[in-house]
Structure formats: structure tokens, C-alpha cells
Specification:
This protein has 182 residues and is an alpha+beta fold. The protein folds into two domains: 57 residues, no CATH class; 105 residues, no CATH class. The protein is built from seven helices and eight strands. The strands form three sheets. Strands 5-6-3-7 form a four-stranded mixed β-sheet, sandwiched between helices. The longest helix has 15 residues. The radius of gyration is 21 Å and the shape is flat. The protein starts with 5 loop residues before the first helix and ends in a 9-residue tail after the last strand.
Length: 182
């Protein structure tokens, strides 16, 4: 998708056709073709520039919709470990829940803490016997992010570290020599 705004088109073409010293390095490092790399740059460009008469940015709309959609249910878990470490993926995140019903990401915050962001639709997380009146009331309420801290939840740590190992691109890192249950 090429921008129709002349100024955006100028920058778009400069990004895609200009001298890109890192292109060959990145293509080799991530084992992708030049065409895939250019498509990736074009996608990022289009996600991050203002579009249309109202200058909406697609990426901002996606993120905003996750947070302000009246049916959104958002939860952030912080998992803290006193004597164990959390791996760090070269991808920067891992996906703990494979489901069409949830959007979930785990991020390493530091050597002994990881965060889990979970986004769901209220219809997915509401109890099966919840009345439509309760759900409608929830949808009208100001949105709150549910935040929970868990200390030394070893079951969550095992799953997190395994996901990092299963989902990394080329490397993962640890702040200690040993890693719990790996």
C-alpha cells in the first residue's frame, strides 16, 4: 500500500529505495529475503504514519481499541521471584496463551520479574451464568486494568521459561548459570 499523500510518499520511497546499510545484515541475521525486508519496512511505515483526513495512525487505533473497547477485559500480572531468574528472549516477548479468545504477551522486566499482559473480550471471561444485564453494566463502566502481583509462583515460572525457549528466534539469555526446571 503506497501512501497517496505526496510528503508521505516521498519518505516512503526514501525508506524503501534509499541506501540502507543494515538491510543485508538484517536479512542475513533473520534469514529473510530482500523482498520480505522491504515488505516489513513498508508495513511498519504504514502502521506508524497518519492516514486520511483525520490523520489517524493505524497502530495507535489498534492499541487504543485494546484499551478502550467497551467489551475489553485487561489484566496485568507481575511475577516476582526471590531466588530464581526469568529468561530473556531475543524476540523481547513470548506468548503464553495460544487461543483465539485471548491476546496475551509475556515480557521480561528484569532478571527476576516478568509481566503478563492479557486482553480478552468480556464475553469470553464472564461466567457462563452471567446475565446480559451484568455484562451490559460492565461495558458501561470506566475501564480498569486488573493488576496482580504474584511472588514465587514456580508453576508460572516454569511455563514462562519454557515458552521463551520454545519461541525465541536465535538466542535467549539468563542472568544466572542455572535456570529453574530447565
Amino acid at each position: 500500500m503506497r501512501p497517496t499523500n505526496p510528503l508521505h510518499l516521498k519518505y516512503y520511497e526514501k525508506i524503501l529505495n534509499g541506501i540502507n546499510y543494515s538491510q543485508a545484515f538484517n536479512c542475513k541475521k533473520f534469514d529473510i529475503s530482500t523482498e520480505d525486508y522491504r515488505d516489513w519496512l513498508a508495513l511498519l511505515f504504514n502502521l506508524l504514519i497518519p492516514h486520511g483526513k483525520d490523520n489517524k495512525v493505524i497502530f495507535e487505533d489498534i492499541v487504543r481499541d485494546l484499551y478502550v473497547n467497551e467489551s475489553s477485559f485487561i489484566m496485568v500480572n507481575a511475577f516476582y521471584y526471590t531466588n530464581h531468574s526469568c529468561l530473556l528472549s531475543d524476540r523481547g516477548f513470548s506468548t503464553p496463551i495460544e487461543s483465539d479468545k485471548y491476546l496475551s504477551f509475556d515480557f521480561n522486566l528484569c532478571s527476576n520479574v516478568f509481566l503478563r499482559y492479557t486482553f480478552a473480550d468480556i464475553y469470553t471471561v464472564a461466567p457462563k451464568n452471567a446475565s446480559s444485564k451484568i455484562i451490559d453494566l460492565y461495558k458501561k463502566m470506566p475501564k480498569k486494568i486488573i493488576y496482580k502481583v504474584e511472588v514465587d509462583n514456580l508453576e508460572a515460572l516454569i511455563k514462562y521459561n519454557q515458552n521463551v525457549v520454545f519461541q525465541y528466534h536465535a538466542k535467549f539469555f539468563n542472568s544466572t548459570i542455572d535456570c529453574y526446571d530447565l
